[in-house]
Design a protein that fits this description.
Elements: H1 3-17, H2 19-25, H3 33-50, E1 61-65, H4 71-78, E2 82-87, H5 90-99, E3 108-112, E4 123-128, H6 137-149, E5 151-161, H7 164-175, E6 187-188, H8 190-196, E7 202-211, E8 214-222
Parallel strand pairs: 1-2, 1-4, 2-3, 4-5, 5-6
Antiparallel strand pairs: 5-8, 7-8
Helix pairs in contact: 6-8
Amino acid sequence: MSYNQTLSRVETYFDKTATKTWERLTSDAPVSRIRQTVRAGRDQMRAKLLSQLPNDLNGARVLDAGCGVGQVTQALVERGAHVTAIDISPSLIEIAQRRIPSSLHSQIEFVAGDMNNTALGNFDYVLAMDSLIYYSQRDLANVLDNLARRTSEHIVFTVAPKTPLLMMMWYAGKLAPRGDKSPTMVPHSPRSLSRALGEGVTLTDLGRITSGFYISHALRVHK
């Protein structure tokens, strides 16, 4: 599947099929025990990624790539950053605009679109939490190379790790019919991804978060 095909599937899923579910999961509303583990895992991963950026971001321009409902965006703005909050789903952007206090909006540019668009300009930092987990190694490497050329400091992001369970689920998902058009996570090995990146781009392993049904691996890229 091409990059644009995957992008379209992700947009359809989050903008139409799963918007309400995602809105509830990322709120304080009661959820099932399974979704509680996902919520807790995401909270831990968000903290891990944010720990890779300075506490004082005054004057810094940051791309929140795949901002969803704006939890990372708000944390970055509260540190003083000017944030481009982009997501492929206009519905999630609307939720982010409602949730983030209006007093912070002057520091945020909300964009519905593709994080890989060079028209977004240059950044000091890029943070992409669980928004690059659906792409092939080739497409993921291309996105990271593109962003690295326009990022003065570093990029922190997550991938689905290549565990036996996730690989089994991935192969089963490839064979099974997917009538709901939901995107499929593509597991990646940090070592293999590092080899696929462009010359001069360094990848650092930041570790994994596992919380019940949530499992994600944090990485950092810089030139």
